Amino acid sequence: MTDAELTVLGLVVEQPRHGYELDRVIEERGVRNWTALGFSSIYYVLDKLAKRGLIESAGAPASRKSRATFRATAAGRELCATATRDALTTLTPLHARVLIGMANSPGLPEAEVSAGLTERLSALRAQLATVRATRRAQEPLPAAASAIFDYSEAMLAADVAWTENALRETMVEKYDVKKVHRELYSPSSKGFSVVDVPELQYLAIDGRGDPNTSTTYANAVEALYGVAYTVKFASKNSLGRDFVVGPLEGLWRADDPAVFLARRKESWAWTMMISQPPWITEDLVQSAVADVVRKKENPAVAQIRLRRVAEGTCVQILHIGPYDDETPTLQRLHDDYLPAHGLTYNGDHHEIYLSDPRRTMPSKLRTVLRQPVKAG
């Protein structure tokens, strides 16, 4: 039976009723707060129950159907009891439409998300006030009716609390290094640009070897993200300051820079990094490291440190495509752009991985290629 059918059948089992009386009881008991039963649907449900032989007319004139009184049949009482036992033990899946809205909310401006949640919060509070007023008007209530109101109030109160929290999260502007330093994280792919990179701080770990095959590299990246998210939650909980975990970045170096053009990855040394907001301290990082060490068996975690990097003047470009296709762009940088502008190297080759390679086609990977430079 549907929820509407079981609700109407239960009310008729309770005592014979006609449609107008059913509508009045449904309204008085706040039934519409937890089931969709409009006035017109009551008669539709009554017709269905009658055709199934679960209720029958108590003898009202056929010409006055709206006042026809219905009573439960023996079959109706039996089915109502069986369905009621099942309803008492069945868990109802949560299908709140707001969850779809939250899942899609990253596609909207933050102001629109906040406005929508604010409107929802106002409606929830009004609905909760209505339920409480309806309850007060009918007290004292039988135990079963009181339990129903308890449930309605609890669900609405929980929804109010959830919406309030979601609204706070939306309205608090999170620090995002990609927005704060937009010019450093969104270069053009059409040509090289010169930027001045201020001193920034990162979670960092050093290593050597082919990133595609090295266990050391895989452990380092896993450890970085584990500590980065632990720092994020510690900052939010203890300092009240939240931030977006930045993209993975890497400083790459070799005794002979030609190994980058030749893609001889086994000769590469690297420092993998994740940017940190300026308020993150060494003590907070070390506390996070200790926390992750207790939870994960990864030798790389203990090697992570907070490091400040000052690159100064840099040349950068956005590379779109597989990592191994970076060579022509790097050759243009090394062989054409730098000599033509009287520049030379002044630090490690820097890459910023804006895309998640686990979820992005190789042809669509977006990587910032950056080279610190100085006058040659």
UniProtKB/TrEMBL annotation:
Protein name in UniProt: Winged helix DNA-binding protein
An example molecular function term from Gene Ontology annotations: DNA binding
GyrI-like small molecule binding domain segment(s): 193-373
Top-level division of the source organism's lineage: Bacteria
Keywords, alphabetical: DNA-binding
InterPro entries, A to Z: GyrI-like (IPR029442), Reg_factor_effector_dom_sf (IPR011256), Tscrpt_reg_PadR_N (IPR005149), WH-like_DNA-bd_sf (IPR036388), WH_DNA-bd_sf (IPR036390)
Pfam families: GyrI-like, PadR
Domain Transcription regulator PadR N-terminal: 8-79
